[in-house]
Amino acid sequence: MKSAVLFANTGVLDFLELRTSIVRIPEVIAKLKEAQTFLDRAIKDAPDLIQFITSDDQVFWSRKRIRQIAVGIVQLGLYERYVKRYGEAAHLLASDKEENPVQVLSGKMRLGEYVINLAMREDDKSKVVSMEDQALLSKGISMPDFQLFQKDQEGFFVLVEEGKKQALNDLLMKLRDEKNTKQFVNIGPGQSISGSALNELVDKELNIMESIDLDPMLSWFWDISSPYCYQLAN
């Protein structure tokens, strides 16, 4: 079955239990340490990314740009692990958000540029909400537009149609109908598509899975998270 990989950047690392679990994955740790060298150059007294990720919600949600960097680097680490087992994806679907890490995979930015560009942007303070409130809010968040990338001859991911952005559902249907792609792997952790939107896609015979769930060596990941956290994240 053909697969495509999804980077949505929504609902990722929202919960402390997910964050404390994610830093146990070797590829994630290695990528965070690599990114740390660039963050240290960009910011005086830069926070330690691993400590930041495992901090409580009040700290984690108080620094928007550092949080965006952390999410992006974690996803790059998870994708690297996915590639080791399954190989490069033929297609990537990525949100059009400025912090989406597919910019690194596409060759548009090097890792250092990605980290420094985000770190140097003006930060803002995000309102701290409880886990329950986060879950309620996430149901009301509209999904961003997405762009479709495919591999070029040099091995970089390039936009299929420059400048064109579409709703996620439309791109999934496009890949299903034109490329016979029916399995989509979400680079989480935490489901970026939830509620009625997910049910609608499943009804259309599309299989959407977490990269962590596909990895038999990570079977422990959800076991050490509470059932409540797993339900909200997926």
Keywords:
alpha/beta; 234 residues; Malonyl-Coenzyme A Acyl Carrier Protein, domain 2
The CA-CA distance between the termini, in Å, is 23 Å
What share of residues is helical? 40-55%
Largest sheet: 6 strands, mixed
Q: What is the general shape?
A: globular
Number of strands: 6
Number of domains: 1
Regions with little confidence, pLDDT below 50 for 5+ residues: 125-141
CATH superfamily: Malonyl-Coenzyme A Acyl Carrier Protein, domain 2
Strand content: 5-15%
Q: Oligomeric state of the chains?
A: single chain
Series of H and E elements? EHHHHHEHHHEEHEHEHH
List the total number of helices.
Answer: 12
What's the alpha carbon Rg, rounded to whole Å?
17 Å
Instruction: State mean pLDDT (0 to 100 scale).
Output: 81
**CATH class wording:** Alpha Beta
By secondary-structure content and strand pairing, the structural class works out as: alpha/beta
